[in-house]
């Protein structure tokens, strides 16, 4: 049964539903709505315009609008800016679509992995956890302090999760500061 609690605070009515995971999170200057899918939220983030353009170039829009659930480790524009000059321009060319698709799907893990799920998997794995990506690769997770998780790719690159638990209707986004690279 879905419980609904309504509270009036300073004249504003706030409804809390037990099926909603968390309050909407601000990403890229916009509120990410838990009722929208991954793509519909990402297009509103000023920090993810490069990622959105890459998803469109790879033809992954319909996939990421699918039922899921998906966990997307979403690199920011600044993360893409860390790549060697010309890398993004090369990846979004039509002839690079297979490579771009592999890189992007490497950032997607089937299932819903928020902070609690990731930290639980790390604890269960004695300090580390490996998750299979949609591209068939592996991402390696470790705690870095009490409230931070790092993600290491197959090439040894390390990303920090800067924003956790951006819930979507078809999964969750965790914002990262570095583009992850598959083998």
Automatic annotation (TrEMBL):
GO cellular component: extracellular space
InterPro entries given in the database record: Adhesion/Biosynth-related, FAS1_dom_sf, FAS1_domain
Superkingdom in the source lineage: Bacteria
Leader peptide range in chain numbering: 1-22
Keywords: Signal
Occurrences of domain FAS1 (ranges): 35-180
Short name of one Pfam family: Fasciclin
SUPFAM superfamilies xref list: FAS1 domain
Name of protein: Fasciclin
